[in-house]
Amino acid sequence: MGYIKSAALEEKGFVILDSYDQSLDPKEWLDIEYVDWKSSGDTRFAPLASAKGEIECNGFWNHKPPRTDKDGVWIDSQVAKAPNLARRAQEPGANVGRCRVIELQPTPYGDCLYNLHQDDNNRLNPDGTGWVVRGFFNLTDDKDSFFVLRENRTDPQGEVRIALPAGAQLIIDTQRLWHATTHNGTEPRYNLITSWTSGPELDAYIEKYHGTDQHEQFEVPQDVLEHGYAEQARKDAARAAYYAAKGQQAKLAMSEA
Ligand SMILES: [Fe+2]
């Protein structure tokens, strides 16, 4: 039967929406409660919606009973502190699974490439229902930072780099695309990540905000790119050697954000 997916994401696996005027809203991400949660890079997370409405970040499939990344339960204490973020996550009217703010410490390009991963949003998702994709709303004004998207983790051909000023809004099929963020700066970057179920509501939202898969490539000097490729290869080799020494196969971290 297959999953219900958005035509707008079919070709490239992502769309960029109109920018949001972040300057009008208070910095709610500084008021909510964070938990340590190892993701790709040096991160913490502040959940707004979780499996059972508690302040934790585990995948819904790790709860009992296990379920897919849908029907997240809003956390009252967090929503009270971040009403604008909750409103924005609910604006499409699509089903929301996990919804959380990620805090990412500065991450150079090579580390970002090492962090490239695919999400697991559609584990246990019943065939014939909506495919889970994720919204990314950049909250801080990270003009020197960019999202990296690849079809193949170790192949830079076709790499997409999207700038992350405040108000940048993306929707990404994060189970299809390898993704991570290069964060150049001295302060943490904050981004609201929401799992949405594909369907007519999300399609209408994408249309309303002029979703496009045409992007302006964030320019990075060639020497920085090549240093990054080498760093990714070096770190991958080090990880493989570590697991080989333990008699295990190196496994890629399947993680959030
Ligand atoms: Fe992710």
What does this structure look like?
The protein is of the alpha+beta class and 257 residues long. It has a single domain, classed as B-lactam Antibiotic, Isopenicillin N Synthase, Chain (Jelly Rolls), CATH 2.60.120.330. It is built from five helices and eleven strands, in the order ββββααβαββββββαα. Strands 1, 2, 3, 4, 5, 6, 9 and 11 form an eight-stranded antiparallel β-sheet that branches. Strands 8-7-10 form a three-stranded antiparallel β-sheet. Helix 3 packs across helix 5 (222-245). It is globular, with a radius of gyration of 18 Å. 41% of the residues are buried. The mean pLDDT is 95. Bound molecules: fe (ii) ion. Fe (ii) ion binds next to loops.
CATH class: Mainly Beta
Proportion of strand residues: 15-25%
Gross CATH architecture: Sandwich
Low-pLDDT residue intervals, each spanning 5 or more residues: none
CATH-defined fold name: Jelly Rolls
Shape: globular
Please estimate the helix content. Answer: 10-25%
The number of helical segments is: 5
Organism: Microbacterium suwonense
Protein name: Phytanoyl-CoA dioxygenase family protein
